[in-house]
Amino acid sequence: MDQFYVPTEIQLGRGALAALGTQTARFGARAMVVCGAGFARRSGLLDRALAALQRAGITATTFDAVRGEANLAVVEEGITIARQQAVEVVIGLGGGSALDTAKAIASAAPLEGSIWEYHGGRAIEAAGLPFIAVPTTAGTGAEVTKNAVLIDPRNGVKYSIRDDRWFARVALLDPETTLSMPPEVTASTGSDALCQAIEAYTSIGANAITDALAYRAIASIGAHLALAYEQPSNLDAREAMLVGSLMAGMAMASARLGGVHGMAHPLGSHFGIPHGVVCGLLLPYTMAYNLEYATAKYARVAAAMGVAAPGMDEATAARVAVDAVRDLLCRIRIPAHLGAFGVTEEAFDGIIAESLPSGSLQHNPRPLAAEDVRRILEAAL
Question: For 279-314, how does the pLDDT look when each residue is reduced to its tens digit (9 = 90+)?
């Protein structure tokens, strides 16, 4: 039986950030705002968020320790502060790493175990604190997913903790918060959104509901990613990207993903490649490898991206989809080869070993054994 579950209340529109205070007040009077140390302050978004909270009479603690990928040590530090400050609501303000960090802090703060134990497989015993998501990038869709992807800094292993109780209570999507993204961040996060939309669409866990969301996400991202990259102040393009990222997140929350994300996690953590960049880099190679197993779906990807000519047969349209994705990623300057990041064949065994247990890899439309992963990596090298 197919299942679709996204309980998050979504508020979408220009100026939505102003509602942060009233939304937070629904859940408590003491909040923690989790964000990065640089962008949130430089852009003025943190000040705007804090002002909205102050207007609603909310006492806010700022935790701005997020740097790079979401990290277990940072999450544990945030949990300690949340407990000390008797925080009642946790707000994530930023990109996927800030949202995942906030999500993990909110979810684990009231629990008995440490975040290290839950990352290691300990079962989640109970619901956490209310979590409100305010994404400032159009990429991960973390505002509508039930998982947090966290790195263990001791060994570089990236693992996703997931639980139905980890969904955000409210997601505030304001395209104005994405206007400050520099082009390289627009490219990276947008590549992640495109990858998630396509992988959710072709996942073996896809269903009619996730297909509808993923298809529309592909269309929106395909039409607006390059525009947002080339015209950063284009608010219409920014809004379309935010909507596309949201729908991709909703789709993947139920459908899961595919081979790209299974390989991207170890590559990103061991070679310092931004998550969206490695996803974009691997996407056309993985699509090409999957062609015979997802021909009809890839043909519809071509249609969604507006590159399928009338009367084109499925096999041709599927190949055109791969080319269109590759061309789009080239246009926004996503590197095309892993070697640019110092990846060598000698690293493949370790990358493969870490990729194979991934739930994402197991949802790929073409079954991927160790040798299949190696072939994709060789092609992408």
Answer: 999 999 999 999 999 999 999 999 999 999 999 999
Bridge partners (DSSP) listed for residue 133:
92, 171
d(CA 210, CA 232): 29
120-131 mean pLDDT: 86
Residue 282 CA, chain-centre distance (Å), reads: 16
Task: Give the gyration radius of the chain's Cα atoms.
Answer: 20
Q: What is the DSSP string of 200-267?
A: HHHSTT--HHHHHHHHHHHHHHHHHHHHHHH-TT-HHHHHHHHHHHHHHHHHHHHH---HHHHHHHHH
Please check whether residue 239 is in contact with residue 175, taking contact to mean a CB–CB distance below 8 angstroms.
yes
Residue whose structure tokens are 């205070």: 21
- Give me 245's structure tokens: 């990222």
| Cβ neighbourhood burial of 8 (10 Å; 0-12, 13-18, 19+) | buried
Chain length of the chain: 381
Q: Supply the CATH number for residue 302's domain.
A: 1.20.1090.10
Angle at 335 between CA 258 and CA 318, to 5 degrees: 45
d(CA 249, CA 141): 4
- Block residue for tokens 């009077």: 29
State the amino acid at position 2 in one-letter form.
Answer: D
Domain-ending residue, one of 135, 162, 178: 178
Termini Cα distance of the chain: 40
Alpha carbons 216 and 210: distance in angstroms, whole number: 10
pTM of the entire predicted model: 0.94
Number of domains in the chain: 2
Q: pLDDT tens across 325-344, in order? A: 999 999 999 999 999 999 99
Q: What angle do CA 265, 170, 47 make, to 5 degrees?
A: 85
Report whether 72 contacts 150 (CB < 8 A): yes
* pLDDT at residue 120 tops 80: no
Distance separating alpha carbons of residues 15 and 87, to the nearest angstrom: 26
Choosing from 157, 178, 199, the residue where a domain stops is: 178
Neighbours of 372 (CB within 10 A): 18
The pair of structure tokens assigned to 118 is 């839950």
